[in-house]
Amino acid sequence: MRRDVRAQLDSTEQPPAHGLEREEHRAQVLDQLKELARTGRPHLGFPVEYGGKGDIGGSIVSFEMIALGDLSVMVKAGVQWGLFGGAVELLGTQRHHERYLRAIMDLDLPGCFAMTEYGHGSDVQNLKTTATYDPATQEFVVHTPDTSARKEYIGNAARDGRMAAVFAQLVTGGESRGVHAFLVPIRNDDGTPMPGVTIEDCGHKAGLNGVDNGRLTFDEVRIPRTALLNRYGDVAEDGTYSSPIESDGRRFFTMLGTLVRGRVSVAGSAGSATKRALTIAVRYGDRRTQFERPGTDDEVAILDYLGHQRKLLPALATTYALHFAQEELVTALDELQHIDEPDERMRREFESHAAGVKAVATWHATSTIQAAREACGGAGYLAENILPQLKADTDVFTTFEGDNTVLLQLVAKGMLTSYKQEVQDLRPLETARFVAEQVFERVIERTAARKVIERIMDAGPRRDEEDSLYDRAWQVRMFEDREEHVLDSLVQRLRRAGNDGVDAFDVFNNAQDHVLRAGRVHVDRVVLEGFVGAIDGCTDPDTKALLEQLCDLYALANIEADRAWFLEHGRLTSQRSKAVVAAVNELCRELRPRARELVDAFAIPEQFLQAPIIAD
């Protein structure tokens, strides 16, 4: 799929995105979206019976490749085919599929995904927009009760959208049945707002100005009963509500879970942008010289300086690690989509995994693109050299498709749920650690990569040898031990929430730092396992050896960054801690001659690397 998209991109002119006026940029992005629609690639992820290809994994990989170029195109494509199209496909039923999917795939029906409200972002369950059923006319009345319920930051709304998938509280027979999605026309064919619909432009943003984000307000807008996307909840002509899922809460989370592919796509797109930034910075560092080497007339390439290597090479190692974690995630999603009725635990574990990788990948993009900009000095601040636009366009990735802080809490909640399922009645403090050790071994995912890890662990770490820092079993155990300890101690902090007279919210809120840490160290371990699994599948000896070194750098740089924890908890001695730092330095020096090879392996089309600072 990547090769096919590269070939297509190589034959397609990619106009520059920087320096454009907002309306000019929006028009250019829409033209590029129309060109993308003509290729048929948006059909990849949709059902075969409606003209799609039924290839979920392929659609996400294709989406990642789009992110090598103008990220406004990627985001607008994501809104149209991922969010709007995904809502219709996954929350709707046959009547919606037959009427809308082909028009959505072909861009004949540009749409929006209207979930976020001015007063409610992450708290989707308490959205204020209402859709009240009127049995006399068999219509829903969609209404914005106050300013806090205004739909905010809605892609495609300000300029191009014709219909929106609006998330609102379904009210029928005087009873609220929770948040559901409704298809609401927002513009006439001539582009003017529909009666009762007010559309405002969000205006200039820090980045992604080729995307027409807007605000939507509804003043008792009437839509037919059939506009309800009714896969998980329906309303009969007389107003009777029915659902295959009895619990309102479980129904809500099931509905949101069907849209998880958006998070997977964002994680992959963040990876593409990171790869592009690193390619520019490494190529620049490989050719830019600064200061003479003592005793010679030769100036030194800045990438030969250890300080410069430390800016870029650990980040490059993490980018590879996240690439392999993303491939595991896409494979798992593709497999999950082909299971008719995946069990709840399987779905929950995947959603948690997707949330964690999205959070870590987007935070990594933000920090790495900044490091790449600094590594290119003042030249990296010029718009012509791409990095400033990448920095501006990816900054929002950490807070859209799920705020990263909230997503890590979701990861931790999944860990705690697995813990509780293993031990319903937590033991007293003196035996809790033993219990945690037993539970931890049972609740970690049994993935293909995990089987590789278990084989490595069975071989046993060489803790007393000089090279034990490079022993994969030792590295994995450090990651596992940290996760196990953090989860165990978090459980102990939260045990009080079940006591009489204790405010459970306060207990959880006071432990929120610990909750976030539990989520983060869990994802770090999962990412390491994905890297190890990828290396195990590599057949070329030279490539495998190079990836082994890169994996060492990822693992040891992660341990180095968290030395305070490992020292505080007795996992490292001070001497051992210093040895970790020395090992990271040594790995940077060893990998420096192959840094250009490692970024060239991303195979980014040269037309997306037209930065003067790296031009021949």
Q: What fraction strand?
A: 5-15%
Which homologous superfamily in CATH is the superfamily of the largest domain?
A: Butyryl-CoA Dehydrogenase, subunit A, domain 3
Derived structural class: alpha+beta
Number of DSSP E strands:
13
Shape: globular
Radius of gyration, whole Å: 26 Å
Report how far apart the termini are. 29 Å
Any idea how many domains?
Answer: 3
Mean pLDDT: 90
Main pleated sheet: 6 strands, mixed
What is the CATH class designation of the largest domain? Answer: Mainly Alpha
CATH topology of the largest domain: Butyryl-CoA Dehydrogenase, subunit A, domain 3
Low-confidence stretches: 423-440
**In the CATH hierarchy, what is the architecture of the largest domain at level 2?**
Up-down Bundle
Proportion of helical residues: 40-55%
Number of distinct helices:
20
Task: Describe the model.
The chain is α+β, with helices and mostly antiparallel strands. The protein has three domains: 2-105, Butyryl-Coa Dehydrogenase, subunit A, domain 1 (Orthogonal Bundle), CATH 1.10.540; 111-238, Beta Barrel (Butyryl-CoA Dehydrogenase, subunit A, domain 2); 261-608, Butyryl-CoA Dehydrogenase, subunit A, domain 3, CATH 1.20.140. The chain is built from 20 helices and 13 strands. The chain has helices at residues 2-10, 22-39, 56-66, 71-91, 94-105, 248-257, 261-287, 306-337, 344-375, 387-394, 404-422, 429-443, 448-459, 472-494, 504-510, 512-536, 541-561, 563-568, 574-591, 595-600; strands at 111-114, 130-134, 139-143, 151-154, 163-172, 175-185, 197-201, 214-218, 221-224, 234-235, 241-242, 289-292, 299-301. Helix 3 (56-66) packs antiparallel against helix 8, helix 8 crosses helix 16 and helix 8 packs across helix 17. The two termini are 29 Å apart. 46% of the residues are buried. The model is unreliable at 423-440 (pLDDT under 50).
